[in-house]
Amino acid sequence: MLNYLDNIKNTESGNFFLMAGPCAIEGEDIAMRIAEKIISITDKLQIPYIFKGSYRKANRSKGSSFTGIGDEKALRILERIGREFGVPTVTDIHESDEAAMAAAYVDVLQIPAFLCRQTDLLIAAAKTGKVVNVKKGQFLSAGSMKFAVEKIKEAGNDKVILTDRGNTFGYQDLIVDYRGLPEMQSFGVPVVMDCTHSLQQPNQSSGVTGGKPELISTIAKAAIAVGADGLFIETHPDPANAKSDGANMLHLDLLEETLTKLIRIRQAIL
Question: Where is the DAHP synthetase I/KDSA domain (predicted)?
């Protein structure tokens, strides 16, 4: 991704940046349609945009859950979106040997929350030279994320983003501590609020994670008011039938209205 900090933190519009897209790459047609719709919105609102899509879902409660359409197939779809729409793309990696593979197709490598302390994975991502977005573990304090930043920078890469996605609250809920956003910003990196995964209700007896998508705008409004540099929002035209994490995704039809309201908050605090 060109002009890393300029593109993310110091845009002419003064807006936050957005990472958004489906939870997983389900197929080329739907991924392209989602990307085209979001780009039409972010261009209109002057919001810097990074397309998000997981090429594979490695962390599933049930063995029968959807994990992907094939690594190379999904990565080529991400590559096509980046090339045809001229936007950066981000995807998760799960093992050290995936870093170089994914880096050949996308601009930003994302470290899932459960893996944010995996030293070999962080170093492998850093050594690709790509931007590395590390999701804060639900089990970690904001302050402890400085060590993830240090690992990546000590490996020779200073292009780091940190993303909050809530803290574990009991067995089946998460809660967001907004004090963590400015604390992580003190490490000198952009900080993002994941407005969808922070509303998950994990560890359900059904083996399928639940969620509270009706509160996505609430989480986002608070994050912008606190001064988050960016937002992470998973969105889909038909969340009820999405193949992964549909229970906590924002309906694509609601995205423009949500972002418009958030821009007003951003302008009020500048």
Answer: 13-263
pLDDT at 2 over 80: no
Say if pTM beats, i.e. exceeds, 0.70.
yes
Spatial distance between the Cα atoms of 18 and 31, rounded to a whole number of angstroms: 17
User: What does 212-254 look like in DSSP terms, one character per residue?
Assistant: -GGGHHHHHHHHHHHT-SEEEEEEES-GGG-SS-GGGPEEGGG
| C-alpha–C-alpha distance, residues 268 and 270, integer Å | 6
What contacts 261, CB < 8 A, 6 or more positions away?
217, 221
Amino acid at 256: E
- CA distance to 56, 115, 148, 261, per residue, from 96 (Å): 15, 11, 15, 39
d(Cα 49, Cα 173) in Å, to the nearest integer? 29
Q: HSE on the CB side for 257, CA within 13 Å?
A: 7
Residue range 136-164, pLDDT digits in tens: 999 999 999 999 999 999 999 999 999 99
Mean pLDDT, residues 99-118: 97
